[in-house]
C-alpha cells in the first residue's frame, strides 16, 4: 500500500476506494469533516438558529419600544419640570419684587415715623423752652416788682407821715381788691 500522504499530494491520482479504513491524514479529512458538520448544522440548526434570532429580534424590538416609551415619559416629565421651574422662577421674581416693594414701603414708613417723632420732639422742646422763658420772665418781673415795691416803700416811708401812709395803704389795698375781682 502506498503512503496516503504521497497519494494525496500527487494531483492526478487518488487511492482506490476498495477498502474501508480510517484516513489518518488530517489535511485531507478535516475539510471533508468540516463540510459534513457544517451541512448537518445548517440543515438541522437552521430552524433553531432562526428561532433564536427571531426571539433575540423580538426582545431587541421590545426593549427599543420600552426605551421609546420611557424616553417619551422622561421627555414629558422633563417638560413638566421645566414648566414648574419657569413657574417657580416667575413666583420667585414676583416675591423678590414684592419684598423689595415692601422693604421700600417699610423704609418710607419708618422715615415718616422718625420725621413725625422728631417733629413732636422739636415741638415739645420748643414748648419747654417757651415755658422756661415765660417762667424766667415771670421770675424777673416778680424780682423787678419786689425791688420797685421795696424802693417805693423805702421812699414812701422816708417821705410820708403816718396819716398819709395809712391812706396810701388803704388805696393800694382797694386797687389790689379791684384787681382780684377782675381776675376772678
UniProtKB/TrEMBL annotation:
Coiled-coil ranges from the UniProt annotation: 71-98
Residues spanning the membrane: 32-53
CDD domains: ATP-synt_Fo_b
Keywords: ATP synthesis, CF(0), Coiled coil, Hydrogen ion transport, Ion transport, Membrane, Plastid, Transmembrane, Transmembrane helix, Transport
First-listed, main subcellular location of the protein, grouped into a coarse class: membrane
Localization, UniProt: Membrane
Protein's UniProt name: ATP synthase CF0 subunit I
Source species taxonomy: Eukaryota, Viridiplantae, Streptophyta, Embryophyta, Tracheophyta
Amino acid at each position: 500500500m502506498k503512503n496516503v500522504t504521497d497519494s494525496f499530494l500527487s494531483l492526478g491520482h487518488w487511492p482506490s476506494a476498495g477498502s474501508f479504513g480510517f484516513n489518518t491524514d488530517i489535511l485531507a479529512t478535516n475539510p471533508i469533516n468540516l463540510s459534513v458538520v457544517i451541512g448537518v448544522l445548517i440543515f438541522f440548526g437552521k430552524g433553531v438558529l432562526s428561532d433564536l434570532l427571531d426571539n433575540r429580534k423580538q426582545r431587541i424590538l421590545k426593549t427599543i419600544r420600552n426605551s421609546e416609551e420611557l424616553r417619551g415619559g422622561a421627555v414629558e416629565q422633563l417638560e413638566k419640570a421645566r414648566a414648574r421651574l419657569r413657574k417657580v422662577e416667575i413666583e420667585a421674581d414676583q416675591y423678590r419684587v414684592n419684598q423689595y416693594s415692601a422693604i421700600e414701603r417699610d423704609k418710607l414708613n419708618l422715615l415718616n415715623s422718625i420725621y413725625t417723632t422728631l417733629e413732636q420732639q422739636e415741638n415739645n422742646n420748643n414748648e419747654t423752652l417757651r415755658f422756661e422763658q415765660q417762667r424766667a420772665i415771670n421770675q424777673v418781673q416778680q424780682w423787678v416788682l419786689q425791688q420797685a415795691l421795696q424802693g417805693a416803700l423805702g421812699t414812701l416811708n422816708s417821705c410820708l407821715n403816718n396819716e398819709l401812709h395809712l391812706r396810701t395803704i388803704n388805696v393800694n389795698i382797694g386797687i389790689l381788691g379791684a384787681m382780684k375781682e377782675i381776675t376772678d
